[in-house]
Write a structure and sequence with these properties.
2 domains
């Protein structure tokens, strides 16, 4: 949980992030200090093991044959990627008891509150010069201050708020007398929605609203309308009420303006020709054009391997000094790092987990434990990420990237629990 908290703060991003380096160092120290320790409690499904092996192998090929980083940066490249795999395996090893799930949700809500705190104090100009990654500032675009929380990117911040909303939402379906209360869950729901709105990310807000309607529709089909209304209406109404009260002071109406006015956002072509692959006619047309230009320049059977930002930008653009972060899409960014096989392996890790969680959730007749509730929450979270990552990339921010590996590690932990074996 310490690394989970640390992964919300972007320390030494130039070298892949403090969180990844600590994870790798912890693993190496533990390995050398406990050489005789057996790790037979690590349970990996064969399919997951194969996908991780392919991803690692493709990285090794990239580091050896394509990546031209200096020796020191190459070491950091390798250490940072191993950090993600280490934290993934550590997360799988955790037995998610009800008590641990309660702690995880409480920490997640606390970090969501902290992100709102950071955004609000910068929104109202309490400070304008960044002193520490613990208190990042905002950036100005379209004539307004765009909030980023602790993630240094508004759309990543928006996606974070959206998926935490989906993670918490199912927990309001049950109530236990220990550990966590509906008041705390309601606070988490409101705060995560507020994080999403403060990012002014159109896609994240739209997905949050559509996903909530879909979730309640499915829930309606399994329970009586009166039961659903009693359980969810108060919390959703409170959330809507808080957003409405803060609409004016926080200028949340700017989000609506971004849907309407072309000069406040990348334009959306309505009624024209649109291509979701090239981005033509979509707000990602310019960003995707860099991918179209880069694709024929090399054979992407082998990528460059994961690396620090300088290395990754060389893979994506052929120039580490270009003033862009990436292609603005996870799926377009993967082949240049991991090659085609590695890119497929990365995506399949997500899709296999979604399918596994869906099968697990589908067996529940009555949700009776937090392990079952978090299965629903992680399923919603991963579906939302999979959709939204078409137009943003979690690879650009090492902190969010690490949080993502923790989430999918927890998901696979649920699939490898005793109930599933």
């Amino acid at each position: 949980m310490v690394l989970y908290i640390l992964s919300h703060f972007d320390f030494i991003p130039t070298y892949g992030g403090l969180n990844t380096l600590i994870a790798t160092l912890s693993f190496l120290l533990n390995f050398f200090l406990n050489k005789n320790k057996k790790y037979d409690n690590i349970i990996l499904r064969k399919s997951v093991l194969i996908l991780v092996a392919v991803l690692l192998f493709q990285n090794i090929l990239g580091w050896v044959f394509k990546n031209q980083s200096p020796a020191f940066l190459m070491i950091v490249n390798i250490a940072s990627f191993l950090g993600y795999l280490v934290i993934f395996i550590m997360a799988i090893r955790i037995d998610l008891t009800d008590e641990r799930i309660v702690s995880f949700i409480k920490i997640t809500i606390f970090m969501s509150v902290y992100n709102v705190f950071v955004s609000l104090i910068t929104k109202f100009g309490v400070y304008e010069t960044e002193i520490t990654p613990l208190l990042p500032t905002f950036y100005s675009q379209f004539g307004d201050n765009i909030m980023m929380g602790t993630f240094y990117h508004s759309e990543i911040y928006g996606e974070y708020g959206m998926v935490i909303f989906f993670l918490i939402l199912p927990f309001l379906a049950i109530h236990r007398s220990y550990g966590i209360s509906k008041k705390v869950l309601t606070l988490g729901l409101i705060i995560s929605a507020l994080n999403c709105f403060l990012s002014f990310s159109r896609s994240s807000v739209a997905l949050m609203i559509i996903g909530t309607i879909f979730f309640l529709f499915v829930y309606f089909s399994k329970k009586s309308s009166q039961s659903v209304f009693r359980q969810y209406a108060p919390f959703l109404l409170i959330t809507v009420g808080v957003i409405a009260v803060l609409w004016g002071p926080l200028r949340l109406g700017f989000l609506i303006e971004r849907f309407i006015y072309e000069d406040l956002a990348a334009p959306i072509t309505i009624g024209g020709e649109q291509n979701i692959i090239t981005g033509e006619g979509t707000p990602r047309e310019v960003a995707f054009s860099y991918f179209i230009k880069r694709l024929p320049q090399e054979d992407w059977f082998i990528g460059y391997g994961w690396g620090v930002p300088q290395s990754n930008k060389t893979a994506w653009f052929g120039d580490p000094n270009i003033k862009r972060a990436d292609y603005h899409s996870l799926y377009l960014s993967l082949p240049m790092l991991y090659g085609w096989m590695g890119a497929v392996a990365f995506v399949m890790l997500i899709l296999f987990l979604i399918y596994g969680l869906y099968k697990r959730v589908n067996t529940f007749k009555i949700i009776s434990s937090y392990k079952e509730v978090i299965s629903v929450g992680l399923l919603l979270l991963l579906i939302a990420i999979t959709i939204n990552e078409y137009k943003i990339s979690l690879l650009r921010i090492n902190t969010y990237h690490m949080i993502f590996w923790i989430w999918i590690g927890f998901g696979y932990s649920l699939l490898t629990s005793r109930r599933e074996v």
